[in-house]
Specification:
This protein has 142 residues and is α+β, with helices and mostly antiparallel strands. It has one domain (5-120): Aminopeptidase, CATH 3.40.630. Helices cover 25% and strands 24% of the residues. The chain is built from four helices and five strands. It has helices at 15-23, 36-45, 88-100, 117-120; strands spanning 5-9, 48-54, 57-66, 71-79, 105-107. It has a five-stranded mixed sheet with strand order 1-2-3-4-5. Helix 1 (15-23) packs across helix 2 (36-45). The relative contact order is 0.17.
Length: 142
């Protein structure tokens, strides 16, 4: 029998756990994990931090910014490689959207290796995402 996955809102998640789950999922390759103050600020400024734990260990996270009225931007979705393919990412998305409000538009930018995952779980692609890349931040944002 598989271990139960526990999902919960964790607005005070320690930054070390956040970084560890990103490292275990490959998302760390695209995040500034060496800049701990910046990573901590990313957590503290998020509107929704939803986690998935297995036997107490953090194995998944959804970090989201939302106005709870129209837009919900899922900024980080990470599931430890050892637990992928079990529906954890899909459940994190579902619960995140529910927490933000199902009337909002849930938006995310897929990691290159995950592009085929999102249509598989019922999400529509959008062909006109535009961005201005951020400059390198000062030594510390705190």
């Amino acid at each position: 029998m598989a271990a139960e996955i526990c999902y919960q809102l964790e607005p005070d998640l320690p930054v070390a756990e956040f970084i560890a789950v990103l490292q275990s999922s490959t998302l760390a390759e695209r995040r500034p994990i060496e800049d701990v103050p910046r990573m901590d600020l990313m957590l503290r400024q998020a509107d929704i931090i939803l986690t998935a734990r297995c036997e107490g260990k953090l194995i998944g996270i959804s970090r989201t910014l939302t106005d709870r009225s129209y837009s919900t931007y899922l900024a980080d979705l990470a599931v430890a490689s050892t637990h992928q393919g079990q529906g954890i990412g899909k459940e994190l998305i579902r619960r995140t959207h529910e927490a933000a409000g199902l009337h909002t538009n849930l938006i995310l930018i897929a990691a290159p290796g995950a592009r085929s995952y999102y249509p598989h779980i019922g999400m529509d692609s959008h062909d006109s995402c535009w961005m201005i890349r951020g400059e390198k931040p000062p030594m510390s944002l705190s």
